[in-house]
Amino acid sequence: MDDVTDVKTALALLARHLAARRAVILHNWQRSVEADPELTTSSNLSRAQFNDHIPQVLAAFERRLEARHPLEKEVAFEDQRNSAAEHGVHRWQQGYHQRETIREWGHLQYWVLDELESYGLLHPALQATVMPIARSALVRLCSEGVCESAGSYERLQRSEAASRVRELEWALLQLQQLERQRAESWREVAHDLRGTVGVVANASSALLHQAADARQRASASRMLQRSVEALRTLLTDMIDLARLEAGQEQLRLAHFDAAALLRGYCDTVRPLAEQRGLFLRAEGPESLPVEGDAAKVQRIAQNLVLNALKATQRGGLRLVWAERNASGTEQWLLCVQDTGPGFEPASAAAPLADAVLEATAESQQADSGVDPAPTLASQSDPDAPRESAGEGIGLSIVKRLCELLDASLEMETAPGAGTTFRVVFPRRYLRRPSRE
Asked: What is the pLDDT of residue 1?
């Protein structure tokens, strides 16, 4: 047998020895990593998680040592690189810093080298031929392992950074859209204010006009009173919205009967509906005990009802409450339905209404078990002018109050089908909302 054959045989025997000692090498490696004060992440891993792909790396190293043909060595080397790259991926997923991963490779190299040196001492005749080859292969193993692990880590970091940039860009786009919606809402409010102030000015001028008769003065007086009341309501809404956007509203959670609250509110606002020739029906179970902020629930109902009254010329409104259990979660519903003209999405609707319609579609797509809120048939003239003063700001207040109460706001509308707003509240709060 020639010298080359002897070396290959000796390397194969060394590879088998390392395979037999692999568990010891891995054990010593883990102990030294645990003793390293600069390596702390590994303490949270199980033994299998810690070893990860390193057993495959060592197995490939052993195959390289005992390979008798160049192709076998190349295949073993490629397996070694792939396992090292996978190890880098898993270390990144386990929360390692790159420096920790590289430092672990140093500990592994030490213990494999220690095993080689022990083997060399037991077989001194191999020191001149076999052991230098094994040490060289070990150096290459660890250098390639460090490079592959670090390369995988770097690629993942770049991918994560790119993903964060995309998320930030999306968040910025959403923020810009919200700012545009907010600016449009305040522009509409300013327009409403200017219109109402103009009416007040005209009515005041009519009252001061010397030539006006008693009937004209009485009409101007009534117009002035209505306009001042509308102006006061609009200014109050603006203050409420400003407080909500500034985070100055506090939740006061308590148990209350939602049915009694909503039925009582309907009784107080029904005369206003009747003055306009509209019906207002309150429908739901006799009692509906829930947890929440009763005052804010009533403000939500009030804004939705008043907006619906402004949008409806004939027919009327239904205010409905009900229980709902969805996906094991106890909830309750508040619906306000009108027989107004309805509208096509993204046409006559205000920007905030468009946003609510979009959120409604996404919510229904995410939870296929939730049916769309029903709408009433329209009884109003689609071409009739809408009494829009304050409508946009009222919906803004509803949206902010829903966010405060961890409630969802949905909207269904179509030409000839009226408009329905549905609010889905938690029936109880297992935790206090973070905005409290």
From this structure: 40
Cα gap 80→37, rounded to integer Å: 29
Residue by residue, DSSP assigns 245-314 as HTT------EEEEHHHHHHHHHHHHHHHHHHTT-EEEEES-S--EEEE-HHHHHHHHHHHHHHHHHH-SS
Burial 312-333 (b: 16+ CB within 10 A, else e): bbebbbbbbbeeeeeeeeebbb
Of 198 and 118, more confident:
118
CA distance 87 to 49: 10
Q: What is the pLDDT of residue 400?
A: 81
> DSSP secondary structure string, 334-373?
EEEEE-S----TTTTS-HHHHHHHHHHHHHHHH-TTSPPP
CB neighbours of 129 closer than 8 A, spacing ≥ 6? 3, 7, 10
Give CATH for domain 252-436. Answer: 3.30.565.10
Q: Does the domain at residues 3-167 carry the CATH identifier 1.10.490?
A: yes
| CA atoms of 194 and 405, how far apart (whole Å) | 33
pLDDT digit string, tens, across residues 15-32: 899 999 999 999 998 999
Tally Cβ neighbours within 10 Å of residue 173.
10
CB 251 within 8 A of CB 406: no
Task: Report in angstroms the alpha-carbon separations of 74 from 46, 67, 69, 283.
Answer: 32, 9, 9, 78
Q: How many CA atoms lie within 13 A of 260 on its CB side?
A: 7
pLDDT digits (tens, 9 = 90+) for 32-62: 988 988 888 877 788 888 888 888 888 888 8
CA angle 246, 252, 258 (to 5 degrees): 115
Instruction: Return the number of other C-beta atoms located less than 10 Å from residue 286's C-beta.
Output: 8
Calculate the alpha carbon distances from 208 to 195, 200, 204, 227 in Å. 20, 12, 6, 17
Q: Look up the pTM and report it.
A: 0.48
User: By mean pLDDT, which of 39-48, 128-137, 328-337, 371-380 is the weakest?
Assistant: 371-380
One fold for both 3-167 and 252-436? no
How many residues can be counted in the chain? 436
How far out from the chain centre does Cα 83 lie?
35
Please report which residue ranges of 41-129 form alpha helices under DSSP H.
47-51, 54-66, 70-93, 98-122
**Residue 22 C-beta-side C-alpha neighbours within 13 Å:** 14
Count of CA atoms in the C-beta half-sphere (13 A) of 217: 8
